[in-house]
Amino acid sequence: MPYVPSRQAKRIRQALSTCETKVLPVRDVIVNGNGVKKKTLRTETHGKSRFASRLRVAMRPAGHLHGRQRGYLILDGRLIPVALGRTGIRADKREGDGATPRGTWHAREVRYRADRGPRPITGLPVLRTRRGDGWCDDPRDGRYNRPVSLPMRASHEEMWRDDGLYDLVVVLDHNSRPRRSRRGSAVFLHIARGTFEPTAGCVAFRPTDLRRLLARLSPKTAIEIK
Protein backbone atom coordinates (compact mmCIF):
# COMPACT_ATOMS: atom_id res chain seq x y z
CA MET A 1 0.00 0.00 0.00
CA PRO A 2 1.38 3.46 -0.86
CA TYR A 3 2.62 5.57 2.03
CA VAL A 4 0.12 8.22 3.15
CA PRO A 5 1.60 10.99 5.32
CA SER A 6 -0.17 10.67 8.65
CA ARG A 7 -0.30 14.40 9.43
CA GLN A 8 -1.76 15.28 6.05
CA ALA A 9 -4.32 12.48 6.19
CA LYS A 10 -5.25 13.54 9.72
CA ARG A 11 -5.87 17.13 8.62
CA ILE A 12 -8.16 15.94 5.84
CA ARG A 13 -10.15 13.73 8.21
CA GLN A 14 -10.45 16.55 10.75
CA ALA A 15 -11.66 18.97 8.07
CA LEU A 16 -14.25 16.47 6.90
CA SER A 17 -15.47 15.77 10.42
CA THR A 18 -16.36 19.44 10.98
CA CYS A 19 -19.23 19.33 8.49
CA GLU A 20 -22.54 19.32 10.33
CA THR A 21 -24.39 17.29 7.73
CA LYS A 22 -24.17 13.56 7.22
CA VAL A 23 -22.90 14.04 3.66
CA LEU A 24 -19.28 15.09 3.38
CA PRO A 25 -18.53 16.05 -0.25
CA VAL A 26 -14.85 16.10 -1.22
CA ARG A 27 -13.54 18.09 -4.18
CA ASP A 28 -10.16 17.87 -5.88
CA VAL A 29 -8.59 15.53 -3.36
CA ILE A 30 -6.38 12.99 -5.08
CA VAL A 31 -4.61 10.01 -3.60
CA ASN A 32 -1.68 8.63 -5.54
CA GLY A 33 1.53 6.73 -5.02
CA ASN A 34 3.16 9.74 -3.40
CA GLY A 35 0.49 10.15 -0.74
CA VAL A 36 -2.36 12.62 -0.46
CA LYS A 37 -2.16 15.73 -2.61
CA LYS A 38 -4.65 18.30 -1.38
CA LYS A 39 -5.49 20.88 -4.05
CA THR A 40 -8.67 22.20 -2.48
CA LEU A 41 -10.97 20.85 0.17
CA ARG A 42 -14.51 22.18 0.36
CA THR A 43 -17.75 20.96 1.84
CA GLU A 44 -21.37 21.67 1.00
CA THR A 45 -24.39 21.21 3.21
CA HIS A 46 -27.59 19.51 2.13
CA GLY A 47 -29.77 19.58 5.23
CA LYS A 48 -30.04 16.20 6.92
CA SER A 49 -30.14 14.13 3.74
CA ARG A 50 -27.65 11.28 3.63
CA PHE A 51 -27.40 11.60 -0.16
CA ALA A 52 -25.00 13.98 -1.87
CA SER A 53 -26.23 16.09 -4.76
CA ARG A 54 -22.74 17.35 -5.60
CA LEU A 55 -20.44 14.70 -4.21
CA ARG A 56 -17.26 14.33 -6.21
CA VAL A 57 -15.05 11.33 -5.73
CA ALA A 58 -11.55 11.56 -7.22
CA MET A 59 -9.46 8.53 -8.00
CA ARG A 60 -6.01 8.02 -9.36
CA PRO A 61 -3.96 4.84 -9.86
CA ALA A 62 -1.52 4.20 -7.05
CA GLY A 63 0.85 2.59 -9.53
CA HIS A 64 1.65 -1.00 -10.37
CA LEU A 65 1.82 -2.98 -7.14
CA HIS A 66 3.07 -6.48 -7.90
CA GLY A 67 1.47 -6.22 -11.34
CA ARG A 68 -1.88 -4.98 -10.05
CA GLN A 69 -3.43 -1.64 -10.97
CA ARG A 70 -4.73 -0.09 -7.79
CA GLY A 71 -6.30 3.18 -6.84
CA TYR A 72 -7.88 4.89 -3.86
CA LEU A 73 -11.16 6.64 -3.29
CA ILE A 74 -11.80 9.18 -0.54
CA LEU A 75 -15.21 8.96 1.10
CA ASP A 76 -16.16 10.51 4.43
CA GLY A 77 -12.49 10.97 5.27
CA ARG A 78 -11.60 7.32 4.65
CA LEU A 79 -9.17 6.00 2.07
CA ILE A 80 -10.88 3.13 0.28
CA PRO A 81 -8.82 0.82 -1.98
CA VAL A 82 -10.17 0.03 -5.44
CA ALA A 83 -9.08 -2.07 -8.40
CA LEU A 84 -8.85 -0.25 -11.73
CA GLY A 85 -8.57 -1.26 -15.36
CA ARG A 86 -5.52 -3.31 -16.28
CA THR A 87 -4.16 -0.49 -18.47
CA GLY A 88 -4.93 2.30 -16.01
CA ILE A 89 -7.09 5.39 -16.58
CA ARG A 90 -7.49 6.88 -20.06
CA ALA A 91 -9.53 9.74 -21.49
CA ASP A 92 -9.75 8.12 -24.93
CA LYS A 93 -11.46 4.92 -23.78
CA ARG A 94 -11.94 2.27 -26.50
CA GLU A 95 -13.76 -1.05 -26.49
CA GLY A 96 -11.52 -3.83 -25.21
CA ASP A 97 -8.56 -1.62 -24.23
CA GLY A 98 -8.76 -2.56 -20.54
CA ALA A 99 -8.80 1.09 -19.42
CA THR A 100 -10.97 2.82 -16.85
CA PRO A 101 -12.47 5.92 -18.52
CA ARG A 102 -11.33 9.30 -17.25
CA GLY A 103 -14.11 11.81 -16.67
CA THR A 104 -17.08 12.69 -14.51
CA TRP A 105 -19.93 10.20 -14.57
CA HIS A 106 -23.27 9.65 -12.90
CA ALA A 107 -24.71 6.41 -11.59
CA ARG A 108 -27.87 5.35 -13.43
CA GLU A 109 -28.97 2.36 -11.37
CA VAL A 110 -27.79 -0.46 -9.15
CA ARG A 111 -28.37 -4.16 -9.78
CA TYR A 112 -28.03 -6.85 -7.14
CA ARG A 113 -28.35 -10.59 -6.67
CA ALA A 114 -31.15 -11.13 -4.17
CA ASP A 115 -29.89 -14.67 -3.54
CA ARG A 116 -26.44 -13.35 -2.56
CA GLY A 117 -27.24 -10.40 -0.31
CA PRO A 118 -29.82 -7.88 0.92
CA ARG A 119 -31.24 -5.06 -1.14
CA PRO A 120 -28.74 -2.17 -0.97
CA ILE A 121 -29.60 1.09 0.76
CA THR A 122 -29.16 3.83 -1.82
CA GLY A 123 -30.77 6.78 -3.54
CA LEU A 124 -30.43 5.07 -6.93
CA PRO A 125 -33.04 2.98 -8.75
CA VAL A 126 -32.56 -0.66 -7.69
CA LEU A 127 -33.13 -3.68 -9.92
CA ARG A 128 -32.78 -7.38 -9.22
CA THR A 129 -30.36 -9.24 -11.45
CA ARG A 130 -32.01 -12.30 -12.98
CA ARG A 131 -30.85 -15.30 -14.93
CA GLY A 132 -30.72 -14.38 -18.57
CA ASP A 133 -29.68 -10.76 -17.96
CA GLY A 134 -26.82 -9.61 -20.14
CA TRP A 135 -25.04 -6.50 -21.42
CA CYS A 136 -24.13 -6.06 -25.08
CA ASP A 137 -20.48 -5.21 -25.78
CA ASP A 138 -20.54 -5.72 -29.56
CA PRO A 139 -19.92 -2.35 -31.32
CA ARG A 140 -21.55 -3.70 -34.49
CA ASP A 141 -24.85 -4.39 -32.76
CA GLY A 142 -27.62 -1.81 -32.33
CA ARG A 143 -27.90 -2.77 -28.66
CA TYR A 144 -24.28 -1.88 -27.95
CA ASN A 145 -23.72 -0.79 -24.34
CA ARG A 146 -27.27 -1.64 -23.36
CA PRO A 147 -28.82 -4.31 -21.13
CA VAL A 148 -30.09 -7.29 -23.10
CA SER A 149 -31.91 -10.55 -22.57
CA LEU A 150 -30.00 -13.76 -23.23
CA PRO A 151 -29.42 -15.78 -25.29
CA MET A 152 -28.18 -13.53 -28.08
CA ARG A 153 -25.66 -14.01 -30.87
CA ALA A 154 -23.83 -10.72 -30.53
CA SER A 155 -20.94 -10.43 -28.08
CA HIS A 156 -22.13 -9.75 -24.54
CA GLU A 157 -21.44 -10.03 -20.83
CA GLU A 158 -23.50 -12.21 -18.54
CA MET A 159 -24.76 -10.27 -15.53
CA TRP A 160 -25.61 -13.46 -13.60
CA ARG A 161 -22.14 -14.72 -12.68
CA ASP A 162 -20.81 -17.48 -10.48
CA ASP A 163 -17.71 -15.59 -9.29
CA GLY A 164 -19.67 -12.99 -7.29
CA LEU A 165 -18.19 -9.93 -9.01
CA TYR A 166 -21.60 -8.78 -10.21
CA ASP A 167 -23.53 -9.59 -7.06
CA LEU A 168 -23.69 -5.81 -6.65
CA VAL A 169 -23.26 -3.58 -9.72
CA VAL A 170 -23.58 0.18 -10.20
CA VAL A 171 -24.22 1.13 -13.83
CA LEU A 172 -22.48 4.36 -14.87
CA ASP A 173 -23.66 6.63 -17.68
CA HIS A 174 -20.37 6.34 -19.54
CA ASN A 175 -20.90 6.29 -23.33
CA SER A 176 -24.66 6.33 -23.01
CA ARG A 177 -25.85 9.80 -24.11
CA PRO A 178 -24.99 9.55 -26.89
CA ARG A 179 -23.70 6.03 -27.42
CA ARG A 180 -20.73 5.91 -29.76
CA SER A 181 -19.45 2.76 -31.40
CA ARG A 182 -16.25 1.31 -29.91
CA ARG A 183 -16.03 3.96 -27.18
CA GLY A 184 -16.51 1.44 -24.38
CA SER A 185 -19.32 -0.53 -22.79
CA ALA A 186 -20.34 -2.07 -19.48
CA VAL A 187 -18.34 0.32 -17.30
CA PHE A 188 -19.53 -0.48 -13.80
CA LEU A 189 -18.68 -0.15 -10.14
CA HIS A 190 -18.69 -3.72 -8.88
CA ILE A 191 -17.19 -6.14 -6.37
CA ALA A 192 -13.44 -6.78 -6.53
CA ARG A 193 -11.67 -10.09 -6.43
CA GLY A 194 -10.08 -10.89 -3.11
CA THR A 195 -6.62 -10.09 -4.47
CA PHE A 196 -7.79 -6.82 -6.09
CA GLU A 197 -6.79 -8.01 -9.54
CA PRO A 198 -7.17 -5.36 -12.27
CA THR A 199 -10.46 -5.15 -14.12
CA ALA A 200 -11.36 -4.87 -17.79
CA GLY A 201 -12.10 -1.17 -17.20
CA CYS A 202 -14.50 -1.06 -14.26
CA VAL A 203 -13.80 0.19 -10.73
CA ALA A 204 -14.01 -2.62 -8.18
CA PHE A 205 -14.53 -2.44 -4.40
CA ARG A 206 -14.72 -4.66 -1.38
CA PRO A 207 -18.41 -5.53 -0.83
CA THR A 208 -18.67 -3.53 2.41
CA ASP A 209 -17.05 -0.47 0.84
CA LEU A 210 -19.34 -0.60 -2.19
CA ARG A 211 -22.41 -0.72 0.04
CA ARG A 212 -21.06 2.21 2.05
CA LEU A 213 -20.60 4.19 -1.15
CA LEU A 214 -24.09 3.28 -2.37
CA ALA A 215 -25.59 4.80 0.76
CA ARG A 216 -24.15 8.17 -0.41
CA LEU A 217 -25.17 7.95 -4.06
CA SER A 218 -28.14 9.43 -5.90
CA PRO A 219 -28.67 9.97 -9.65
CA LYS A 220 -27.32 13.52 -9.21
CA THR A 221 -24.05 12.44 -7.62
CA ALA A 222 -21.01 13.19 -9.77
CA ILE A 223 -18.30 10.53 -9.72
CA GLU A 224 -14.98 11.85 -10.93
CA ILE A 225 -12.31 9.46 -12.18
CA LYS A 226 -8.92 11.07 -12.76
Automatic annotation (TrEMBL):
Q: Does the keyword ATP-binding apply?
A: no
Query: Might you name a Gene Ontology BP term for this protein?
Result: peptidoglycan biosynthetic process
Functional pathway:
Cell wall biogenesis; peptidoglycan biosynthesis
What is the protein name given in its UniProt record? Answer: L,D-peptidoglycan transpeptidase YkuD, ErfK/YbiS/YcfS/YnhG family
Named from the GO MF annotations, one term is: transferase activity
Name the source organism: Ancylobacter rudongensis
**Stretches assigned to the L,D-TPase catalytic domain:** 54-226
Q: Cite the active-site annotation.
A: 190 (proton donor/acceptor), 202 (nucleophile)
Which keywords, in A-to-Z order, does the entry hold?
A: Cell shape, Cell wall biogenesis/degradation, Peptidoglycan synthesis
